[in-house]
Design brief:
136 residues; 69% helix
Amino acid sequence: MLLRAYAWIDAHERATIVGLTSVAIVLRALLVIEAPTPQGYVWDFYRDGVTVLATEGRLPLAADCWQCYHPPLFYVVGLPFQEAGRWLGGTATADRLLAGSSFIWTAIVGWYGFRLLTFFGCRGIVRVGGVARPRC
C-alpha cells in the first residue's frame, strides 16, 4: 500500500507540491487572520526587538527584551512590515503584518529548497517531502 502511494506521488509530483502548498497557504492565513492576539500564535514576543529598532533607531541588545538575543536579521527585515502596519492602522495592524510576513519567508525557503533539491537531482517523494517540510 505504501509503495503504491509513493508511486502515485512520483507520477503526480507537481500536483502534490501544488496541493500541499495550497493547504499550507490556507492554514498559515488562518493562523494570521484568526489568531487570538495581534502577533499571532507567537508567545515569545519576537516583535519586541523590532520595536526597539523602530523606536530607538538601534539594534536591540540582549538585555532589551526576552527575545533580543537573536541575530539581527529578523529585526532588520521585519522593520518595514511593522512600520507599514503602524502607518496603516496602529500597533495591532503592525503586529499582524509582522506575523503575516512569515508568508514571504516561508515562500523563499520553499522555493530555494525546491531549486536545491532539483539541482541535486532529487525527484518524486524526496522532492515533495523536501519542499513540503519547510512550509509546516
